[in-house]
Specification:
By secondary structure, this protein is mostly helical. Helix 1 runs parallel beside helix 3, helix 3 runs antiparallel to helix 4 and helix 5 packs antiparallel against helix 6. It is elongated, with a radius of gyration of 21 Å.
Amino acid sequence: MILPLLRNDASGHPGNDSLPRTSSTMRTLVAGVRQGYKFFQTGKFNDAQNSFASVMSQIPLTVTDNRSEANEMKEMLEICREYITAIRIKGAMAEAGADPVRSTELAAYFSHCNLQPVHLLLALRSAMGTAFKHKNFILAASFARRLLELPDMKSERNADLRMKVGAV
């Protein structure tokens, strides 16, 4: 089987405009980020971290056709970095479960990662619960206020959470 190593090698001879054949495309990167979102949403943090790390390792090997795709790739890099940081903080929270000060501090760090609004809602809810459990009511109220400011909190599916947060 003969497979050309260049993607625009129509005549069979490489020229000045020849580009290398790449295995990753923008479509595969977007699919990897979406898969990472699904894993994060369901609490499969190791799988999510592997998915985001895979996307990050493919980004330098992906060729873009225009500037907008390059900017989109930079955004994907930032998204992957933020989610991997959030997952590492979540892992450190599990390790520091016995130390209330450290687990509350890590929960606060976790809530400051630049996540999607749906995932930020989960992070703030977790941080509020951790602070409340450790009797740090001022910090729990701060997380509750940030939670109420999210646009997703106005929907009907979060009505019972809005009532719970209002009680804090």
